[in-house]
Amino acid sequence: MGTGLLLGAAAGVELLHLAPAAVRLPPVKRLLARRTAGWGTVPGHLALTFDDGPDPRGTPPILDALDALGLRATFFLLGAMLERSPDLGRELVARGHEVAVHGWHHGRQYYPAPARDLRELRRATEAVTALTGTPPLWYRPPYGVLTAGQALAARRLGLRTVLWTAWGRDWEPGATGPSVLATARPHLTGGATLLLHDSDCTSAPDSWRAALAALPLLAAHCRARGITLGPLRDHGIPRSGSGGRVSRAGNAIAGPPVQ
Questions:
Q1: Would you please indicate which residues are annotated as catalytic (active-site) residues?
Q2: CA 257 to CA 18: how far, in whole Å?
Q3: Structural contact between residues 118 and 147, judged by C-beta atoms closer than 8 angstroms
Q4: Do residues 233 and 98 lie in contact, with contact meaning Cβ atoms separated by under 8 Å?
Q5: Three-class secondary structure assignment of 105-158
Q6: What distances in angstroms separate CA 212 from CA 50, 63, 140, 167, 218, one per listed residue?
Q7: Contact of 59 with 88, CB cutoff 8 Å
Q8: Residue pLDDT, tens place only, 91-138
């Protein structure tokens, strides 16, 4: 085989590897991959999700803020972070939140390695199950870049891949509670999935404070519009390999009335 054919074959393999990442593009999210993007089917429900924890600095104050607002959320955990703070993982569950998988490390998987993808995702899934006592239902790849290897590994492990449809860019330097709300506001609708972070392990130092400051603002905004904030388990997205919706647990609470 000539050099040109080898390069062409390699490019084809890379294209197939990265093809699922197209689901992150807004038109694909809206039209072709709504469930993977995070669009739910429960009327008026917005899924509240956090990535990159558990973090001893960011997670506890965010849990306290969620308790004060009467809210429950889904936390996409990194295996390496959970291994360092297993008690926080158990506390998430004890407080009524849902745990999900964000991978072992927060790395970019640009090159095909299906065996690696399965090994690392299985390791993270088993850690979440063992250290929190709850088998996860959901997977979100780091940076929202879903590769073919990750998609196949998630399916093999019985995980449903879910990205997001709204974010507040809380990870950026200089982000504040009002800036997070302003960025997310146009996309805060029933059926949407909101991405926030309870850790700064992959972002600007103390960036989790922007998410913390935004929580009461987001809750008030949604309450005023009749939108209920809650975890993915209440969002009406089918579980991996099932034809029905995830059963509602009754834990999605919109919070106290606006004063």
A1: 51, 197
A2: 45
A3: no
A4: yes
A5: CCCCCCCCCHHHHHHHHHHHHHHHHHHHCCCCCEECCHHHCCCHHHHHHHHHCC
A6: 11, 9, 21, 14, 10
A7: yes
A8: 999 999 999 999 998 766 666 678 889 999 999 999 999 999 999 999
Token look-up 């922007």 returns 210
Note whether 248 and 230 are within 8 A (CB): no
DSSP category for residue 230: E
SS3 content of the chain, % helix, strand, coil (to 5): 45, 15, 40
For 187, the token pair is 């996309």
Q: Please say whether the beta carbons of 150 and 109 come within 8 A.
A: yes
Q: CA angle at residue 19 from 6 to 22, to 5 degrees?
A: 145
| Confidence (pLDDT) at 110 | 64
